[in-house]
Amino acid sequence: CSVYGSQYLLEGLYEADMPEMDQHALDLMRSDSDRGWLHMIHNVGTTVTLEAWDAKYKPNLDWNHAWGAAPANIIPRYVLGITPLEPGYAKIRIKPQCGDLKYAKMYLPTIRGQVCVTINSKTAEKFMIHCTIPGNMTAEVWYPLDKVDFTGDAKTVTLLLDKKPVQATRNGRWAVIDNVMPGEHNITFPE
Fold first, then answer.
1. What are the φ/ψ torsions at residue 66 (nearest 5 degrees)?
2. The dihedral of CA 158, 163, 164, 168: what is its sign?
3. How far apart are CA 11 and CA 135, in angstroms?
4. pTM score, two decimals?
5. In sequence order, what are the beta bridge partners of 160?
6. Which of 25, 65, 102, 168 could be stapled to 13 by a disulfide with Cβ–Cβ 3.0 to 4.6 Å?
7. H helices within the chain, ranges in order?
8. Pair type for strands 82-84 and 103-110
9. pLDDT in tens, 102-152
10. Are the C-beta atoms of 134 and 113 separated by less than 8 Å?
11. How far is it, in rounded angstroms, from Cα 184 to Cα 12?
């Protein structure tokens, strides 16, 4: 698709809420094909996003188009999964859909302060979400059970929030901890 259509393609892949679609979206953003952002940087030489993937698709393209910058909003909203749930970021959702990434970190400025989310999966058994929630905000954290090969159909799952067991609600491939309070937190799966 075009650079404009890539926004909707990537959103659709992440909204499918399937690990293989998360991975496909990530692979598209990392692709060095002639219809990829790495091609724009490495082969065309641009430092901003183009109006089209390459001049061969649109000979009169310009070199400054925000509509070609889909990863700029997809990465915070889906890869690291930071989205507002209430007006003014009073409450946020953290739902990382990170495919095969082993490590990613993002600082997201909001009107209530800076949110920081780090995902770390050096091994499949130890996927960790580290988050910093500003003092006037709460969070709903979605932990991907497919990262730890969780099996079972229980309605609740025990996770570790700052090394203390908490009950999380099962929602498909996710375990959800609601109302995570302000501060720095580590969320992991018990060994």
1. -65, -30
2. negative
3. 30
4. 0.91
5. 165, 188
6. 25
7. 3-15, 19-30, 37-38, 71-74
8. unpaired
9. 999 999 999 999 999 999 987 555 899 999 999 999 999 999 998 887 777
10. yes
11. 31
- Is the pLDDT at 27 greater than 90, yes or no? yes
Q: Encoding tokens for residue 37?
A: 């952002």
- Burial group, residue 9, by CB count within 10 angstroms (0-12, 13-18, 19+): middle
Name the percent of the chain lying above pLDDT 90: 69
Task: Using the structure block, give the residue that is written with the tokens 């990530």.
Answer: 26
Tell me the C-alpha distance between 127 and 115, whole Å: 20
Six-digit token string for 119: 């995902």
SS3 string, 7-30, reads HHHHHHHHHCCCHHHHHHHHHHHH
Which two tokens mark 103? 């490590």
Q: Which H or E element spans position 167?
A: strand 164-171
With beta carbons less than 8 A apart as the criterion, state whether 30 and 100 touch. Answer: no
End-to-end, the C-alpha distance of the chain in Å comes to: 43
Query: Average pLDDT of the chain?
Result: 92
- Judging by DSSP bridges, how do beta strands 138-144 and 91-94 pair with one another? parallel
Q: How confident is the model at residue 11 (pLDDT cuts 50, 70, 90)?
A: very high
In our burial notation (b when 16+ CB lie closer than 10 A, e otherwise), range 135-163 reads eebbbbbbbbbebbeeeeeeeebebbbee
